[in-house]
Design goal:
- The chain is of the alpha+beta class.
- The protein has 2 domains: 232 residues, no CATH class; 80 residues.
- The protein has a 5-stranded antiparallel beta sheet with strand order 4-5-3-6-7. The protein has a 3-stranded antiparallel beta sheet with strand order 8-12-13, with no helix packed on it.
- α1 packs across α7 and α6 crosses α9.
- It is elongated, with a radius of gyration of 23 Å.
- 36% of the residues are buried.
Length: 331
């Protein structure tokens, strides 16, 4: 058996292009060796050596891992439910995260890659051709760990949610990356219905990773360089036309109450007329972490530090909640 060693993402793209063009020499799925490939999950170039990771980063990794299991369950068993995975499959898919470069980089260690590919070879739909099975594995890997597919998704989300987009702010794909995404789209069509459902499932874990870097200056997520502002836009919820209205006024923070999935609930008083409103504070839109600590500390004090949080920007009022517009920061 001729083993094909994968040392980087480019090797996967080379194989996928051959499959799409029906070129000869495509290895069977169990002939692919992934153990030399260590996909990058995070890189924080501005952090000092030995810096700490916050719970939000760990939470992003956990959600990323869960979405990978759901995607594998869909591909192998036809349902995006990780409970469908066998004990052997869970063990093969139990990836390890490795910190490097003085803890500024987090990569994936695929030390169970042989078992990983064997499970795919054994469980993929019997009616699939050998090339389709190999393509399914490559599509899965590029969706979960690939920089090009991740960059395409981030670019689309950024363009969709940034209402005042300037051309120089866009997350732009190179000519080669654009061509590779065209190959990827063709591969999805050729591989079958299960593969075509994977992008939506994997996007959940990818978004969790991006959400965990919204308070960073510059970082890399799945090989894609992002600013904190870009990450905030990507993970924000788009405004639904016909719902809510904009409030432009200064506010004082009265209370920060219960945490919910998207962030926190708070009560705010208008400076000009003392009207109080309830508001949803989107976690992805919160100010820098040092400011958040002071802000969330008001849950105990029942008020915010006037010196730090004197005024609020404009808030989008959605009855009974209100969403903030502009830069979405408490100042």
């Amino acid at each position: 058996m001729a083993v094909r060693t994968i040392s980087g993402e480019a090797d996967l793209w080379e194989l996928l292009e051959k499959i799409v063009s029906q070129s000869p020499g495509i290895p069977d799925i169990d002939e692919i060796d992934l153990q030399k490939w260590m996909p990058e999950i995070f890189y924080f170039p501005e952090e000092k050596v030995g810096h700490a990771f916050y719970p939000g980063t760990a939470q992003g990794l956990v959600q990323f891992h869960a979405s990978m299991w759901r995607a594998a369950a869909l591909l192998l068993h036809g349902r995006a439910d990780q409970r469908k995975l066998t004990a052997e499959q869970r063990k093969a898919l139990e990836i390890k995260f490795v910190a490097g470069d003085g803890s500024s980089r987090i990569e994936v260690l695929l030390d169970s890659a042989e078992a990983f590919t064997k499970e795919f070879a054994k469980e993929l739909v019997a009616g699939m051709t050998p090339n389709q099975k190999t393509a399914a594995l490559i599509i899965f890997l590029l969706l979960v760990f690939g920089a090009v597919v991740s960059k395409d998704w981030m670019s689309n989300q950024y363009d969709l949610k940034n209402e005042e987009l300037q051309s120089e702010e866009r997350i732009q794909l190179s000519q080669q990356e654009t061509k590779r995404m065209e190959v990827f789209a063709k591969a999805l069509e050729q591989t079958g219905p299960r593969a075509r459902e994977l992008p939506e499932i994997v996007a959940v874990g990818r978004e969790a990773l991006v959400k965990s870097v919204t308070d960073q200056g510059v970082s890399r997520v799945l090989g894609v360089e992002l600013t904190g502002e870009q990450a905030q836009v990507i993970t924000s919820k788009p405004h639904e036309d016909g719902k809510g209205k904009s409030i432009n006024a200064d506010f004082t923070v009265i209370d920060i109450s219960n945490q919910h999935e998207a962030g926190y609930l708070g009560v705010f008083k208008r400076v000009d007329n003392n009207d109080e409103i309830s508001a949803e504070i989107n976690m992805a839109m919160l100010p820098p972490r040092s400011d958040c600590i002071a802000l969330l500390g008001s849950r105990e004090k029942k008020c915010c530090r006037q010196s730090e949080y004197q005024r609020m920007g404009s808030w989008r009022q959605n009855s009974p909640r209100h969403r903030h517009e502009g830069d979405n920061r408490v100042r």
